[in-house]
Automatic annotation (TrEMBL), chains A, B:
Record keyword Lipid biosynthesis present: no
Name assigned to this protein: Guanylate kinase
Limits of the Guanylate kinase-like domain: 5-184
Enzyme Commission designation: 2.7.4.8
Lineage, highest ranks first: Bacteria, Pseudomonadati, Pseudomonadota, Gammaproteobacteria, Alteromonadales
Species assigned in the record: Catenovulum agarivorans DS-2
Amino acid sequence: MASLGTLYVVSAPSGAGKSSLIKAYLADHGDNASVSVSHTTRAPRPGEENGVHYHFVNHAEFEKLIAQDAFFEWAEVFGNYYGTSKAAIQQQLEQGLDVFLDIDWQGARQVKKLQPNAKTIFIAPPSQAELLSRLQKRGQDSDEVIAKRMQEAQSEISHYDEFDFIVVNDDFAQALADLTAILRAQRCTQQKQAKKHQALFSDLLA
Amino acid sequence: MASLGTLYVVSAPSGAGKSSLIKAYLADHGDNASVSVSHTTRAPRPGEENGVHYHFVNHAEFEKLIAQDAFFEWAEVFGNYYGTSKAAIQQQLEQGLDVFLDIDWQGARQVKKLQPNAKTIFIAPPSQAELLSRLQKRGQDSDEVIAKRMQEAQSEISHYDEFDFIVVNDDFAQALADLTAILRAQRCTQQKQAKKHQALFSDLLA
């Protein structure tokens, strides 16, 4: 039988506000939702904690986990590995937690193949102009770097039609309400409710 | 392409609070949702208006509509016909309205067969004791009538696992929030958003 928790893959181009939305959601619903902590071989950045931001492992350890088929999805980016451990997520789901996976469309595809019950959510910016403006506001990036980010963003956005849900982050409060509704509605699906309320339906049909 | 609106079949045993929930939802969301008005051959009761509570027609008219395949679903109950016209609902859905169909599990099955995009919602009472108490509070019904209602309720409840969503109406505000989330989340599905935001995605990918 399905677990009470649901696995959510949330993808977005950078600048869409995905991290802020997930953070705001968890601030209100931290008791029944969490973000999956990925494994990586890259070095911790200042302030990053092992087990909180990532599980930091070396290449040999990561490759051993790959060989053990321990990952939902993994990828090599600029010479470093990133991956999502099945065991950790499964445990959270069975505790009834919803789990967010913050990965790109390629990871979303892999996860959906392995776990068809997972729900995929795409966060979209409200316009190209606004996306550009958000990327420009981030700081001291050169025009060249920003142009490259816009290109990467478009590549990510081109897969928007592969997702189960789309949240357009124009007004932040509305986008958060959309995200919240998606997770609440999922908890009302027949499979989840039948499991949660087994005793109730036994009583009603007695 | 799918319409922006969604057809919701809402079923429940009497005493579950279905009508109150739909009424409360529409009080807040009357601009983008409505209840389908059924056709019937039974006589109007005091206070019932033609076109508001039902479309009142005679047997010959109803049978003509059946022959024209004009109904999503219809049934004969105690010698009277009840039916849901396809044309009226389709028009509302294409205007972007969500439409509630207040029918039983048999109607739900028929509608789902004809319109697989329809979503079915079952409203459940929080316990058998509470259901009995709600039926008893309704007024001057004899024990025999109440026992019959409980039997009918159990028969309806036995089909709870055929529905897409289940809302347990224990705390009314929470049940209303569940219902509201289900409808809001449905508006965030990829198909609905891709249609609603066609111009946005053209802009983002330009």
